[in-house]
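I'm stuck. Protein, please.
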Amino acid sequence: MPLLGRAAIAMWWDIIPAVRAEFEDWHSHEHLPERLGIPGFLRGSRWASADGPEGFFVLYELDAYAVLTSSAYVARLNDPTPWSTRMMSHHRNMVRSQCRIIESFGGGVAGLVLTLRLSPKPGEGEALRAHLLSLLASLPTRPGITGAHLLQTQTPELTATREQQIRGSDAVADWIVLVSGYDPSVLKPLTTVEPGAEMLAGAMPMRITGLYALTFTDR
């Protein structure tokens, strides 16, 4: 099963150990169900860093890109609950990318996900995209891997919302590769040894990878 819909919100942030238990309670029992109550939100998942104790990756899969500017979603962003207001002040090193799903191969949810954030070199975007899609299409057939997906950030033009004001300035990714699977011995090496490195020749040298384990998903 591929990722659901044609758009997504991909987010990374850190939570200090002192508030981690409350954060997971809040996100599981209030925030994620709240988001999935918004028309067009199809699935939400939370993943904890397999490389360290503080990092999380969260993915919301959306029916269409227009959901990002829908009145229902914007209303929620401008009216956070008291619990959300308190917890969002603890989000550190926030990266929040509102994306179009370019292509999705294989499965959408597994026990582990590798995230890769990258940008194309000037003038090499189309070539890099073609190379990445060729690589990603082949990955889900490999043992230990279930899915591979390419997302591209396209931030809608919106006035800063109340939630953004609470968190402060969010960073954004550019292009995002997600590789899901069930075997850490297969996925873990991909965080340091790029799969088919020749396929990424058109990418900028600055690339950020991380391996995350699923802690909760809804739908």
About this structure: The longest strand covers residues 92-106. The first helix runs from residue 17 to 36.
